[in-house]
Amino acid sequence: MSTRKHSTIYRKDYQVPDFLINELHLDFILSDKDCVVHAKTVFQKNPDSQVTSGDLFLHGQGLELLNIAVDGVELSSDNYQLTNDGVILPGMSDTFILDLSTRIYPDKNTELEGLYRSSGNFCTQCEAEGFRKITYYLDRPDVMARFTTRIEASKTSCPVLLSNGNLVEEGDLEEGRHFVIWEDPFPKPSYLFALVAGDLVSLNDSFETMSGREIDLKIFVEKRNRNKCGHAMTSLKKSMQWDEEKFGLEYDLDMYMIVAVDDFNMGAMENKGLNVFNSKYVLASKETATDQDYLGIEGVIGHEYFHNWTGNRVTCRDWFQLSLKEGLTVFRDQEFSSDMNSRAIQRIEDVRVLRNFQFREDAGPMAHPVRPDSFVEINNFYTVTIYNKGAEVIRMMHTLLGAENFRKGMDLYFKRHDGQAVTCDDFVSAIADASGVDLEQFKLWHSQSGTPELQIEEHWNSNSGEYRLEIAQTCPSTPGQLQENKKAFHIPLCFGLLDSAGKDMNPGKDVLHFRSERESYSFENLPEKPVLSLLRGFSAPVKIMPWQDREQLAFLMANDSDPFNRWDAAFRLSEAVILEITKSLQNGESPTLDPLFVAAVKRILTDQRSDKSLLGMALILPEENYLAQQMTVIDPDNLHEGRKFVRQELCRVLHGEFRQIWEENCDQGEYKLTPESMGKRRLKNVCLSYLLAGNAPDQTDVELALRQYYDGQNMTDIIAVLAAISNCEIPERLELLEHFYEKWKDDVLVMDKWLTLQATSSLPGTLASVQELMKHPAFSITNPNKVRSLIGAFGSNHVCFHRDNGEGYCFLAEQILALDSRNPQIASRLTTPFSTWKRYDGARQVLMKKQLQRIADKKGLSGDVSEMVRRSLHVCFFPNS
Q: What positions does the domain Peptidase M1 alanyl aminopeptidase Ig-like fold occupy (predicted)?
């Protein structure tokens, strides 16, 4: 690990590179013990740089320098200076060729950045700053060069040798070795470089572009996984066709390749022409993958493919502009998934992620703008704010401009900036110039952090038929940004006005442009007071403070023409009921369930007309982690008991309805991945979870669950049983967990599900179970997926992690410290559950702060973990939600 000082980098300090790179020729000599990298780099002075010294700094970490030469003349150690972070070459000429050789050790690379080995195969991960762990280079996104890559390795252990671009040469060498040469004709930054070498097989197909070019498609996996790639290939072809039809964007190389690896810090990586994927987002069969797994694979395959233009052909100038590629591409993959499946369900799922995770981030010590102002470690800024809130910013532009003008803006963006490294402002300028819409105020979404909060007031004049709506916006203080200094956002608010029959009154417009701290909107000549359906389709990432009573929410649940708002009304009603019951428990009162809420749930269960997936989503109660953020002082125990009470009471009162819906939607026919089939499974399995809501459910319901488990023909139905029964203190729980393990112990991805089910159980012995599972053959501390599935999942288990004895805090701190020296990126992400420590009661605050300080005091702590922990410790305020 690097011993460099953890210094803060500021966006305001950006300077253009002093040198540019025209070409880079790489030669990798791979062996079982090490890798020697020869790099020949063609430099030229940057005419835009004001620096005249000619000094060149190249990034490099953990490298063994073998030799270095300039224009063919080898340099002595007196002619350069090695530092912990790279090498300094003083007084370079305006143009020169640098030759250098380094040795690296992929087998010892536990950080999984740069070049490392996974299951014996070589692969790279260079985003954000991994290329500097391969060779000395200007490892920054605004330095774009044409890469030519030669790879040499044993033909036996590495029959497949891959890199970016087009294959231009290959051949055999002496001693059973062989080589390939790949040439990428498109300039790219170093973070998009990729290399894969190993014993892999491929699933092959092709795609004809709109201009008639035939593209070879290849998905490389280990031999045992070849029969699980079909869905990924189908998803890739759908993505290519969709991008042509929706945005007119055609693939530009002769071949598109995907490689699946088991050891990967991220979900996937969009390296030009050679995507490296976490195997979780490639491999699927009905026996091993759930409906959500299939949808996840389709979305991530699309996401990485769409990066070919929004990220690769046009990339970001610096890492502060990360959302320029990630937020934009998330928006594109969300639209793709919406078109491929159910738009309403996709939107609900996207908003659930935003509310459960991004809103919490915005309200805590790690809050930052979509375009951050500073960072210590860029790895810590691959966040839900950059990705998901960034996507919402793009979506708001789409809403404000309309689809046609937005497409014109995208076309202009590519025309202006193809082959360039640009900024968020460059994107907004292209959108504004093409559409003629002033987006200057809108750009505050990039620079201001926090979630805007809206206050709603309604006024009705029955004599004149005037309905007046007054809206006020504020944005809470966030680190480095006080509330009083924040300016009003430009917020698009999609809305509808419903009459007493549930019909839209159609006021002649459906989007309000809300630009001031407070504005008033009037609607005249209405025959009756309307019920307001606001923020339809979740048209902006804002919080609306409660203003509608439960009768209005129940009315919207039953009648709103906007499917998202029907679900949202159910969500808001459930939230109000659970928090009310939690307060009753805190006061020592016996809680009762609101009959209006029960009646609303019953209407969902008896609804024969609506989309079943939407009904299933409406029945899912808000998660405890989300509900916790709505409390002034978080009370994990009473919150858990309050939510559990609601589930148990609904089951008691509506048991017959839940059972009937389960029976009506049982389908033992062929597994189909259609919205209709997925909707039936979702609704059935949500009902099953209610039937098993208690610690000791009715035995007839347990037998029903056992029948679904043992007769199940797909992983969706089987996992649903395990998820429901994992919270029940009954003998059948252990019986099913053991049976599941014995059946699937040889499938690493299925075992990840098995680990998560046990780590997220609400039963009191969960922590002890997690500690035992860390010794289990199904777990490995070296594999990021395993760490996320067990340790990360336990950290998200709100009631068990926050047991008042503090044992959960101590456990997580131990794992963070153990992982910090092995894989700082993964260790850093495990710190998230600690970030809200100031929102809990005094006793828990003391316990959590003790563990945060314990981590912070570790000698040689990585920058990744240090930044997260110190920001959490030093936060001087914590805004209430």
A: 450-544
Say if strands 86-89 and 146-154 run parallel, antiparallel, or are unpaired: unpaired
Number of domains composing the chain: 1
First-last CA distance in the chain: 39
d(CA 119, CA 112) in angstroms, rounded, equals: 13
Measured CA to CA, the distance from residue 674 to residue 667 in angstroms comes to 14
The active-site residue, picked from 304, 361, 649, 657, is 304
Question: Which amino acid would we find at residue 383?
Answer: T
Strands 201-208 and 177-183: unpaired
Dist. CA 155–CA 195, nearest whole Å: 16
- pLDDT single digits (tens) 685-711: 999 999 999 778 999 999 999 999 999
CB 466 within 8 A of CB 522: yes
CATH of the domain at 50: 2.60.40.1730
In a domain, 186, yes or no: yes
71 in a domain, yes or no? yes
The domain of 123 spans 9-199
Can you give the pTM of this predicted structure? 0.97
Amino acid at 249: L
Sheet holding 95-104, edge to edge: 73-74, 64-70, 95-104, 35-45, 19-30, 146-154, 177-183, 166-172
Element of type H or E holding 739: helix 731-744
Q: Is residue 156 part of a domain?
A: yes
Contact 181, 222 (CB under 8 A): no
Mark whether 304 is an active-site residue.
yes
Question: 368: closest CA among 340, 394, 389?
Answer: 389
Give the phi and the psi of residue 587 in degrees, each rounded to 5: -85, 5
Task: Name every residue whose Cβ is closer than 8 Å to that of residue 83 and which is 6 or more positions away in sequence.
Answer: none
Q: Which residues contact 809 (CB under 8 A, 6 or more apart)?
A: 801, 834, 847, 848, 850, 851
Measured from the Cβ of residue 192, the count of other Cβ atoms closer than 10 Å reads 26
Residue 161 one-letter amino acid: L
**What is the residue-averaged pLDDT of the chain?**
96
Task: For strands 86-89 and 19-30, give the pairing.
Answer: unpaired
Q: Can you tell me the distance from the alpha carbon of 783 to that of 168, in angstroms, rounded to the nearest whole number?
A: 35
Taking the alpha carbons of 690, 696, 699, 703 in that order, is the dihedral positive or negative? positive
Q: Which residues are paired to 422 by β-bridges?
A: 316
List, for residues 745-789, the tens digit of each pLDDT value.
999 999 999 999 999 999 999 999 999 999 999 999 999 999 999
pLDDT at 877 over 50: no
Contact 333, 299 (CB under 8 A): yes
Check: CB of residue 336 under 8 Å from CB of residue 299. Answer: yes
Residue (of 841, 764, 846) closest to 810 by Cα position: 846
Token pair 């009506």 is found at 664
- Beta strand 160-163 with 214-221: parallel, antiparallel or unpaired? unpaired
Closest CA to 147 of 42, 59, 251, 71: 42
Proportion of the chain in helix, strand, coil states, percent, rounded to 5? 45, 20, 35
How does pLDDT run across 114-144, given as a tens digit for each residue? 999 999 999 999 999 999 999 999 999 999 9
* Alpha helices in 46-185, H assignment, sequence order: none
Residue 702 falls within a domain, yes or no? no
Going by C-alpha positions, the residue among 478, 372, 382 that lies closest to residue 423 is 372
- In this prediction, residue 507 carries a pLDDT of 62
Cis bond leading into 128, ω under 30°? yes
Q: What is the 3-state secondary structure (H, E, C) of 338-362?
A: HHHCCHHHHHHHHHHHHHHHHHHHH
Q: What residue has token string 């001031």?
A: 516
DSSP E strands, 227-326: 255-261, 268-269, 274-278, 315-316
Among 624, 542, 634, 620, CA closest to 586: 634
